[in-house]
Structure formats: structure tokens, C-alpha cells
Specification:
The protein has about 300 residues and is an alpha/beta fold. The protein has helices spanning about 15-20, 40-55, 70-80, 100-105, 115-120, 125-135, 150-160, 175-185, 205-215, 240-250, 260-275, 295-300; strands at about 10-15, 25-30, 60-65, 85-90, 110-115, 140, 170-175, 190-195, 225, 280-285. Helix 2 (about 40-55) packs across helix 7.
């Protein structure tokens, strides 16, 4: 389970901007890990599904928004590995046909259960999970975004696949599990930089610290989160971001998304310009996938992303 395609390539980005600023930039192509269990979601789900199988669970329940990469990936994993799946979806009920992410999950057999935003806030409460078990029967619960101790374990394995001597690894941050995993895997002499895609998300610093502690006893502060590149909040964007994503695809033949990887990569370029990184540094950017969301984004905003 979860072994095929588990190693992804490292691709160097080369252009005059990077050369003139004396920064060596590489992208870890986690977007290539699996056709539908995309990027860091594959890493986060791996040990959770193994744990569910170990304890004889037949159903997986998880949480997310209507355009969630995690919902799409969980539905794909459950379908591939023989589990039924339930997605607790935040917000007003939508027909699957109105949303490509929900359509994908529905087509793969995921039962979609819509709850109010107020009820959704209770998703991590034991009493609420008991209520859901009374409704749906036994299941293995995976938190929103897949971020828990088992996700940290899976994401930590990314580091061991990087065959160059690097100084810093950068990832987009939504729930913090990927950042926690990378920080657990790199040791004390290297750094992990997270680029938050959420507005007013300083709570993420505490969440990441908790996730790291859930995975290892030694508490190391080899990481930080930059909160300056959310562009107004989750899934918010501007013309500069869209232009950057489209230009990056043309220049490097790598597709970015507007929610996570586009913001991360644009932040890296701006931080290079600001001399945040030392000269001759080796920086690895983690491509966390999430490209399934581009279809929905373009449907809402008029094909802004060249895909």
C-alpha cells in the first residue's frame, strides 16, 4: 500500500535572475508522485491508511472545503485501496456537478456530508466524532488537511529522497503538517521555511510545534513561517500571482496552482530579491501538487490559469 511512485524527481530551475542573485533553486516534484493522490497529500495519507488497514477499518472519514485537495486525494486513495469514504464538507450543500472537486470525489464513491460552518468548527471534538459515528457507523478519522502525527512521519520521508546537499527547504503552509514533517526530517543544521497561504494565521506556529512534538521528543527550532504572502487569505489572488504562474509554466514547463505553490514560488523569488537567502545557497522548493483545483478556479474566474 502506498509504495508505487513514492520517489519523485528534483528539478533545477535555471535563469538569469537566479544566477545574478547567486541562488541555486531546485523543485522537488511531489506533484508527480501519483496521478490523483497528489503531492504532499500522498505523504500525509500513507501512514494513516496503513493504520486504518492495520486496525481493520473499512471506512475513512475526513474534512475539507468544497475545493479541497485533501478531499479529492482521500477519495482517490480510498477508492484505490478498497475503503469506503465520507467527506464532511464545510458550507452550503452543493450538487457534485457544480464543482469538479466534489464531482471527482463523488464519482470515486465518497459520500458527501455538508455541515454548517459553525458545526464544522467542532470537527476536532471527540463528541462530534461520536455523533458522526452514530450517523455513519465505524470509520477511521483523518483530520482536515490530513495533518496529524502520522502525516508528519510521512512528510519527513521526503527529505531522505533529496540527493543534493541543500541548505533550506521551502513549502506552502495550510494546516502545518508538511512543514512539521520536513522540519522533523532535516536535522538541526538546515532550515525549513513555510509560506502561509492563510490570513491572520499566526496560530500556525503553535500548531506546527505541536505536530513536531507529536512525532519526536527533541524540540528543534529549525523552521519558521512567513505570513506575508497570503494575498488576502486562502484562495485569494491578484493579477501579479496569475501572471507569475503563467510565466513560470512557460519558462520552466512546471505548472503551479494559485492557492499553494504559486504563492510559495512567488514568495521565494521576492525573498531572493530582498536578499533573504545567502549567496551560493541551495534552496529546495516543495511542489505539493494540488493541481486538481485549477479546473475549479478557472471555472470561477474565467480561465486565468494557462493549464
Amino acid at each position: 500500500m502506498f509504495e508505487k511512485g513514492s520517489s519523485t524527481p528534483l528539478q533545477k530551475i535555471e535563469n538569469t535572475f537566479l544566477k545574478s542573485n547567486r541562488v541555486n533553486l531546485f523543485i522537488k516534484r511531489e506533484d508527480l508522485i501519483h496521478p490523483t493522490i497528489s503531492g504532499n497529500k500522498w505523504r500525509k495519507l500513507k501512514y494513516n491508511f496503513i493504520e486504518a488497514q492495520k486496525h481493520g477499518h473499512k471506512a475513512i472519514l475526513t474534512f475539507g472545503g468544497a475545493f479541497s485537495n485533501h478531499i479529492a486525494a482521500t477519495a482517490s486513495a480510498a477508492n484505490e485501496y478498497g475503503f469506503s469514504s465520507i467527506g464532511v464538507i464545510r458550507g452550503d450543500e452543493l450538487s457534485p456537478e457544480s464543482n469538479p472537486t466534489l464531482q471527482h470525489a463523488h464519482d470515486l464513491g465518497m459520500k458527501l456530508y455538508f455541515v454548517s460552518r459553525q458545526d464544522y468548527k467542532n470537527r476536532n471534538e471527540p463528541g462530534y466524532l461520536d455523533e458522526l459515528k452514530r450517523k455513519f457507523g465505524d470509520f477511521y478519522a483523518i483530520p482536515e488537511g490530513g495533518s496529524n502525527a502520522l502525516a508528519v512521519k510521512g512528510c519527513a520521508e521526503i527529505v531522505s529522497e533529496i540527493e543534493i546537499d541543500f541548505d533550506c527547504i521551502v513549502t506552502a503552509v495550510g494546516t502545518g503538517g508538511t512543514l512539521a514533517g520536513l522540519s522533523s526530517g532535516i536535522g538541526v543544521n538546515r532550515k525549513t521555511l513555510g509560506i502561509s497561504v492563510l490570513k491572520s494565521a499566526n496560530y500556525l506556529d503553535e500548531e506546527v510545534a505541536k505536530l513536531i512534538s507529536s512525532h519526536q521528543e527533541v524540540k528543534t527550532k529549525n523552521w519558521e513561517i512567513n505570513h506575508d504572502y497570503h494575498l488576502g487569505g486562502y484562495a485569494k489572488f491578484n493579477d501579479q500571482l496569475i501572471q507569475f504562474i503563467n510565466d513560470f509554466r512557460v519558462d520552466n514547463n512546471i505548472q503551479l496552482d494559485p492557492v499553494y505553490t504559486g504563492k510559495m514560488m512567488m514568495a521565494i523569488y521576492e525573498l531572493i530579491e530582498q536578499k533573504y537567502f545567502e549567496s551560493n545557497i541551495n534552496v529546495v522548493a516543495l511542489h505539493t501538487g494540488g493541481l486538481q483545483g485549477i479546473t475549479g478556479f478557472n471555472a470561477l474566474h474565467g480561465d486565468l490559469i494557462k493549464y
